[in-house]
Amino acid sequence: MDTILQGSPRPLQISIVGATLAAIIASLVTSPNLNGACGALLALLMIAIAVIDSRRYIIPNELVAAAAVLGLLRAGLIGPDAGLSAMLWAACSGAATAIPFLLLMILYRQWRKRDGLGLGDVKLAAVAGIWLGLITIFAVIELATLSALAAYFIAGLMRRRPMRVTAFLPFGLFLAPAIWIGWLAETLLG
């Protein structure tokens, strides 16, 4: 975590570490078993992805792959339907969630002649599909999108800069934590 936080202002570093610890504790308190341990690891991965994407506009493949493998293992080990079929279902759900993002990425690139979504965002959507149920996936994508738009507008107002349709926005910064929040909500309600 030190290399991720290196160069950040001290209050931001403390906030990120505090949020990480709070997410780990919330995961383990909500589900004091293997599912909670998986949720705690998911929290670590999603916070790392959010921090890296906010600073470098990139979502590391290694972290996305770790979250995907962890989600598949969780599907195979936890729950009443655990097993190979649950792992296959989770993989199919991940693909079904990623495909619309991939199509949006391709169509936007053809229409605007520039990138809108990156391939990392598409892969992160697959992680959401692996970890979450269908209704939660929609809620998570909506939460991430609305949070990203709100953050962009508030930052623009605070800096007194005009809004630009060509501005870069690290969507993983918002989607990654929303995935963990979706897992937490499902665990609390499930």
What does this protein structure show overall?
Helix 6 (119-131) packs parallel to helix 8 (172-189). The protein contains eight helices and no strands. It has 190 residues and is mostly helical. It is globular. It has one domain (2-189). It starts with a helix and ends with a helix.
Helix and strand layout, with pairings?
Elements: H1 2-5, H2 10-30, H3 34-56, H4 61-77, H5 84-112, H6 119-131, H7 134-159, H8 172-189
Helix pairs in contact: 2-3, 3-4, 3-8, 4-5, 4-6, 5-6, 6-8, 7-8
Radius of gyration, rounded?
Answer: 17 Å
Largest sheet: none
The helix content, as a percent range, equals over 70%
Mean pLDDT: 92
> Low-confidence runs (pLDDT<50, min 5 residues)?
1-6
Brief rundown of the structure:
The chain is mainly alpha-helical and 190 residues long. It has helices spanning 2-5, 10-30, 34-56, 61-77, 84-112, 119-131, 134-159, 172-189. The longest helix is centred in the middle third of the chain and has 29 residues, at 84-112.
